[in-house]
């Protein structure tokens, strides 16, 4: 049985199409990331899979169940960290684990779970005194209490400092090593790249690309291109004297190469122009480049994607 | 399926969290006691020993001359002023409050929760002047401390009248009637009132706050991912506030009795009020938190619902001292029936009244609880 099978899923909030007909499957033992800017529809999508929201159209099967109708059954089998996880202020992680174990009616070993999420040191600190990273780890610990095979992590590292993020990544990798299937949403490119087997890039309620990072780059990347540091005049000169397509942006001339020999023609034209030019190199699109192209956004210095506000809708 | 085990584990976590939060504990337990101390201190200073005695003077004449109105002179004397106008003493123990002859006197006493009363019969003056024996009836509760003082004062005045005209032979005699209503002091009202206050305030504010906050921070969503049901969740909150109410009740009664000598009757009749009250207001708080969009609105609506009840339902003052229109408002407030019920049980031993109050409270509680469970959603569409 495929853990997750989603086809043509739709969710509308009035005029806004939060999720607009997306389809994907997730295999057992896989880490699958929904990557996209804020408002892309990731959370709506993951909450429908968790049975926390009702879909408006399409078909969703999680562990063979309808998440909305069979939610009560499903919740016994899955683990979830909701976005911006919070818990009772005056309850410690250890108490929280015992509480969840009682609710699920199972015997849990709090120490083992705390160790698994690297939280042994703060077992007895009340939730309001935990750091952001420790709070997320508490969320992870609670998601593990009922020994689920399938985990949903909705933006598990948003708002955390780099060290805390790496610690969470370590925990997630440990969970994968144990064979758990994990669905992750994130708006951090590096997180998706570091953790996931496959990525679905979401924008405005649709999946605009899906596959492994290499597959996505191969499908949507421009291929190899030649970049020359030079002036606008030089760019115009090369364009006029070759058959090549020439792009220019902020002192950087960019020429897509259909074949390697194109580079020679471009450089010959540059030499001929008698204009000054600097460093040259060839490069391929990275996942960042593809991503920016697909969602027409930019990546800020933390690796977070920021989209120009037009057309962004809220998923919360 | 409702699981007692899940309710118990949720109860454990919630109560532990509550006890770790000093603020909640203060408002739940300490604050009502402080109120008793404050109000008790303010009003106990007032009872400088003068006892109000309701007196019905049925002797309305006609009198040939005002000298012949012996009944009026008798009333004056009961207030400590001799027929010749001299004051007997500065610390005269009783103060007569005249009651219209048309009133049903027994009922009047009960309505004013007083056990001390005097009836002067219709032919009092005529019989006295004729030297015929006439009976003044003194109402009193033998168990009350004021009762002896009142009957002693009345017989003293009667003796004086007997001496004055008949050389001490008994013309005016005293007969006594036992009244069951105990003489109530302000603090006797204050305790049921403030118990009502704490039944209202703690569960109500707390649930308004919790339910709107949990909705905002998505803690309800989080809990919906566990086998805990919303019914179980609410049940555990209700249970905790029942426990808190009982603790607060014991604390307040102890303080009231020990420090202010309050008279309260403790019977099993109190139990249904101490159980239904917190259930009612925890559910009402839940309902307010559920139907409002965010914690800010919830807080405002919560206050709008809570504050009129806090002051008008007979918590700090008996509602009989309020003007009629405010009394009418009080009758639509759920807390009124709880406070009245507690008064009926603890102060008046009026169980017929208490049963009616209890029935009203039970119906409101069932309706509000059902509405809260129905409207409250773990997850959204």
Low-confidence stretches of chain B: none
Summed over residues and divided by their number, the pLDDT of chain B gives a mean of 86
Q: Any idea what the shape of chain A is?
A: elongated
Oligomer: heterodimer
From the alpha-carbon coordinates, what is the Rg of chain B to the nearest angstrom?
27 Å
State the order of secondary-structure elements of chain A, H for helix, E for strand: EEEHEHEHHHEHEHEEHEHEEHEHEE
The number of strands of chain A is: 15
Largest sheet of chain B: 5 strands, mixed
Structural class of chain A: alpha/beta
Number of strands of chain B: 5
- Strands of the widest sheet of chain A, in order across it, are 5-6-7-3-8-9
> Hey, which two chains have the biggest interface?
A-B, 30 and 26 residues
Descriptive account of the structure:
The complex is a heterodimer of chains A (316) and B (381). Chain A contains eleven helices and 15 strands. Chain A is an alpha/beta fold. In chain A, helix 3 (93-104) packs across helix 4. Chain B is α/β, with parallel strands linked by helices. Chain B is built from 14 helices and five strands. In chain B, strand 4, helix 6 and strand 5 (172-178) form a beta-alpha-beta unit. In chain B, helix 7 (186-216) packs antiparallel against helix 11 and helix 9 (230-260) packs across helix 10. The longest helix of chain B has 31 residues, at 186-216. The A-B interface holds A 50-54, 71-72, 75-76, 78, 80, 82-91, 95-96, 99-100, 102-105, 126 and B 5-6, 8-10, 12-14, 16-18, 20-21, 217-219, 221-222, 224-228, 379-381.
């Amino acid at each position: 049985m495929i853990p997750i099978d989603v086809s043509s899923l739709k969710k509308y909030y009035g005029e806004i199409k939060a999720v607009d007909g997306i389809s994907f499957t997730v295999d057992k033992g896989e880490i699958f990331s929904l990557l996209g800017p804020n408002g892309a529809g990731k959370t709506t999508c993951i909450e429908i899979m968790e049975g926390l929201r009702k879909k408006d159209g399409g078909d969703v099967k999680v562990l063979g169940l309808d998440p909305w109708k069979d939610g009560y059954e499903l919740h016994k089998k899955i683990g979830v960290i909701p976005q911006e996880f919070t818990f009772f202020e005056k309850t410690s992680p250890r108490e929280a684990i015992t509480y969840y174990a009682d609710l699920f009616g199972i015997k849990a070993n709090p120490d083992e779970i705390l160790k698994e999420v690297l939280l042994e040191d703060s077992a007895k600190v009340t939730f309001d005194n935990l750091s952001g990273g420790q709070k997320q780890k508490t969320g992870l610990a609670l998601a593990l209490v009922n020994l689920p095979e399938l985990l949903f992590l909705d933006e598990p590292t948003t708002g955390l400092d780099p060290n805390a993020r790496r610690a969470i990544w370590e925990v997630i990798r440990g969970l994968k090593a144990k064979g758990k299937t994990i669905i992750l949403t994130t708006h951090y490119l590096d997180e998706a790249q570091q953790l996931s087997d496959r990525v679905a890039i979401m924008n405005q309620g649709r999946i605009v690309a899906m596959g492994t990072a290499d597959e996505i780059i191969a499908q949507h990347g421009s291929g190899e291109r030649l970049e020359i540091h030079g002036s606008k005049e030089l760019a115009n000169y090369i364009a006029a004297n070759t058959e090549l397509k020439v792009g220019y942006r902020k002192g950087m001339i960019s020429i897509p190469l259909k074949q390697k020999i194109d580079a020679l023609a471009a450089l010959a034209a540059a030499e001929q122009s008698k204009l000054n030019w600097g460093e040259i190199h060839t490069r391929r699109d990275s996942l960042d480049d593809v991503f920016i192209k697909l969602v027409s956004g930019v990546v800020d210095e933390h690796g977070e994607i920021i989209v120009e506000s037009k057309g962004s809708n809220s998923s919360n | 399926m409702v699981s007692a085990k899940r309710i118990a584990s949720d109860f454990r976590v919630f109560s532990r969290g509550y006890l770790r939060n000093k603020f909640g504990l203060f408002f739940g337990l300490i604050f009502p006691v402080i109120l008793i101390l404050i109000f008790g201190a303010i009003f106990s200073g007032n009872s400088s020993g003068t006892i109000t005695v309701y007196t019905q003077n049925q002797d309305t004449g006609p009198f040939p001359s005002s000298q012949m109105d012996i009944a009026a002179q008798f009333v004056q004397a009961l207030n400590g002023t001799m027929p010749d106008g001299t004051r007997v003493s500065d610390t005269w123990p009783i103060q007569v409050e005249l009651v219209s002859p048309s009133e049903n006197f027994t009922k009047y006493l009960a309505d004013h929760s007083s056990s001390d009363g005097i009836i002067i019969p219709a032919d009092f003056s005529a019989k006295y002047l004729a030297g015929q024996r006439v009976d003044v009836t003194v109402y009193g509760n033998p168990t009350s401390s004021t009762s002896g003082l009142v009957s002693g004062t009345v017989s003293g005045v009667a003796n004086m009248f007997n001496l004055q005209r008949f050389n001490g032979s008994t013309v005016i005699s005293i007969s006594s009637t036992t009244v069951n209503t105990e003489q109530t002091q302000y603090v006797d009202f204050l305790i049921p009132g403030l118990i009502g206050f704490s039944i209202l305030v703690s569960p109500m504010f707390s649930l308004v706050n919790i339910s709107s906050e949990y909705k905002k921070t998505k803690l309800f969503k989080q809990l919906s991912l566990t086998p805990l049901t919303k019914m179980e969740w609410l049940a555990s909150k209700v249970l905790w506030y029942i426990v808190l109410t009982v603790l607060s009740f014991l604390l307040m009664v102890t303080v009231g009795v020990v420090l202010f000598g309050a008279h309260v009757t403790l019977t099993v009749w109190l139990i249904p009020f101490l159980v239904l009250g917190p259930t009612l207001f925890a559910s009402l708080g839940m309902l307010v938190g559920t139907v409002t969009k965010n914690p800010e609105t919830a807080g405002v609506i919560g206050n709008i619902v809570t504050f009129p009840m806090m002051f008008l339902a007979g918590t700090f003052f008996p509602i009989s001292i309020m003007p009629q229109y405010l009394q009418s408002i009080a009758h639509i407030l759920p807390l009124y029936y709880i406070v009245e019920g507690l008064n009926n049980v603890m102060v008046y031993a009026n169980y017929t009244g208490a049963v009616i109050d209890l029935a009203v409270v039970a119906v409101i509680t069932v309706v509000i609880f059902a509405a809260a469970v129905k409207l409250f959603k773990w997850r959204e569409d």
